[in-house]
Amino acid sequence: MLFEDTYRTIDKPTEGLFRDRGSKFIAFVYPITADSDIKPLLAQLRSEHPKANHHCWAMRLGIDRSVFRINDDGEPSGTAGRPILNTLLSRNITNVLVVVVRYFGGTLLGVPGLINAYRTATEEALNTVVIVEKMLNDIYTIQFDYQQMNDVMRIIKEDNLMLFDQQFDNTCMVKVGIRRMQVNQSIARFEKVTGAVIKLVG
After folding, report:
1. 51: domain CATH number?
2. Which pLDDT band, with edges at 50, 70 and 90, does 3 fall under?
3. I need a labelling partner for 93 at 20 to 30 A (CA). Which of 106, 150, 167, 184 fits?
4. Confidence class of residue 98 from pLDDT cuts 50, 70 and 90?
5. Does residue 149 share a domain with residue 117?
6. pTM for the whole structure
7. What are phi and psi of 10, to 5 degrees?
């Protein structure tokens, strides 16, 4: 398989609801870009739903399937976080956090019932999202002399690079995003610019 340099994610938060025998499962879906996004979102939901019995969640980050975390938050192991994550995997989306807030209705649902409830609540929320395809870019800074400005800007335009930042002084600097598939080609062009210093920053 060719290395993928695009990934599917969601453009904005959404929610979904599933009820079963008195229990209420509310799924909240958020786009995230880092592990550190999770804690504040969980804290916010806990303060908005203090009487809920469980705040179970799963997240997936990055374009391979290796970065994920699940949390059953007191539900029987494997009945909450795992079905939420499996739903994310089956939709092939990433950079997403799903938190399902459960209000217990007094009737035990059993393991199959819980798995179904957490999965269905997640699906209800994901059915309303807009899935967007994003490009995976490596971020580089290019430093160069002012005289080289036209050469550098021409490469950025012709290679269709994303320009994040630019500083034009005695020494000039641009920060660009280069699609992974074309990194070698674009960097080779920048290297031909006299005196250019190229650094990978992220």
Report:
1. 3.30.230.30
2. low
3. 184
4. very high
5. no
6. 0.77
7. -110, 155
